[in-house]
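Tokens for chain A. Residues wanted.
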């Protein structure tokens, strides 16, 4: 193998797409997927590549410092693509400490282990930190987040991600650790845990349960197909300039209520139901605390400098996503059994 690359959080939603893309595309790179397998991590997401010669799964916790150091010693990684995180805003509101531990301490453990393992020789080494547009805070009716927008995180989730971004940049400036960062907008696609808006609504429509819309439903997000995020990560990992940040987004803003209408109509078609059936499930519920009004990414830099752009329209990506969830009933059933029931009851007073 030419290289050994550590991908953290590879059993999660975005991580599993990144692992699959790298394992299939770069057969001369040994991919080590390190994941704690929290509620959000699921090896079923990767069972199609499980036996590939250039793929190894390691179960472990990035918060465990000596475990992380030993792993770097064992594998002598050439690069790191760091996605492991606690990722759901609602969970961060009820349990901020877990976000501080995984997202901040876990990231520092990886930075320290990389620095120690690489010593003084950073040639051909790279530490890629995957982050979110939520670090920039919230927008009014106009404007876009650029790479120069000042950080203004407002939820425990985004504050923990912002903190990890600052630490990654600090290691670049202080120790010249070869880092690169990207900040992406909301992802959607197959294998996303059904606590996030799109898979939650797909699952609830299937089950004939209410579709909970927070507040007035006019909160706006910029949605990107997860496979396009994975393609952007591939491009940035190999071609991004060290020390730089790349914003990734789909130029695809939707108010939540309009998005849920579109999803309902797609589900009606796929399920062979009369138009308007699923929309009847829409239920306005108490707003999220500190709910950010609008996120929207200016992706001009990655498009102009690295030549990346989204490959599908939202209609195509959403249809593909709906069809995946309907075809993968067992996956959905498995992840929504057990602890999910309690989470759902606590979150929605079901
Ligand atoms: P996810 O919650 O689906 O997956 C996170 C993965 O990390 C899981 O497999 C989990 O088991 C693992 N993990 C959690 N804690 C760990 C620990 N202590 N040690 C090792 N592994 C641990 O998240 P996702 O949506 O795939 O997001 C991946 C990354 O991308 C995150 O860093 C997130 O901040 C970022 N991001 C997500 C989005 C989005 O819309 N989902 C958008 C932009 C950026
Ligand atoms: P989510 O998928 O949790 O992503 P994020 O909070 O990281 O943007 O939520 C997307 C939007 O949908 C956000 O404005 C919150 C809203 N939302 C609801 O209205 N109802 C829900 O049940 C959930 C989970 C989210």
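Reply:
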């Amino acid at each position: 193998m030419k290289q050994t690359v550590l991908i953290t959080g590879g059993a999660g939603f975005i991580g599993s797409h990144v692992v699959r893309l790298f394992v299939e595309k770069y057969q001369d790179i040994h991919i080590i997927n390190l994941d704690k397998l929290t509620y959000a991590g699921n090896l079923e997401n990767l069972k199609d590549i499980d036996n590939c010669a250039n793929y190894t799964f390691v179960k472990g916790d990035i918060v465990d410092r000596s475990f992380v150091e030993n792993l770097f010693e064992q594998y002598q990684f050439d690069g790191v693509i760091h996605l492991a995180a606690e990722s759901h805003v609602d969970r961060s509101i009820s349990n901020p400490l877990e976000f501080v531990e995984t997202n901040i301490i876990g990231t520092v453990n990886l930075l320290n282990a990389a620095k120690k393992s690489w010593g003084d020789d950073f040639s051909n080494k790279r530490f890629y930190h995957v982050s979110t547009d939520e670090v920039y805070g919230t927008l009014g009716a106009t404007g876009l987040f650029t790479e120069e927008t000042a950080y203004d995180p407002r939820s425990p989730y985004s504050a923990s991600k912002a903190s990890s971004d600052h630490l990654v940049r600090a290691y670049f400036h202080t120790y010249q650790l070869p880092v690169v960062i990207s900040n992406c907008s909301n992802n959607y696609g197959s294998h996303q845990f059904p606590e996030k808006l799109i898979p939650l609504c797909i699952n609830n429509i299937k089950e004939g349960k209410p579709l909970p819309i927070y507040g007035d439903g006019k909160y706006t997000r910029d949605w990107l197909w997860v496979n396009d995020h994975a393609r952007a990560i591939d491009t940035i990992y190999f071609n991004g300039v060290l020390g730089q940040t790349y914003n990734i987004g789909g130029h695809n803003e939707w108010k939540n209520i309009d998005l849920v209408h579109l999803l309902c109509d797609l589900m009606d078609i796929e399920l062979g139901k009369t138009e308007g059936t699923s929309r009847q499930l829409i239920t306005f519920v108490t707003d999220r605390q500190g709910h950010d009004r609008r996120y929207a990414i200016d992706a001009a830099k990655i498009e102009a400098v690295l030549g990346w752009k989204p490959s599908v329209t939202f209609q195509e990506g959403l249809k593909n996503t709906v069809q995946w969830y309907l075809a993968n009933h067992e996956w959905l059933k498995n992840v929504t059994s057990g602890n999910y029931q309690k989470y759902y009851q606590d979150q929605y007073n079901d």
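The domain at 197-220+254-290+313-342 is CATH 3.90.25.10 (UDP-galactose 4-epimerase; domain 1). Residues 89, 186, 196-197, 200, 212-214, 219, 221, 256, 288 surround thymidine-5'-diphosphate (ligand 2) (CB under 6 Å).
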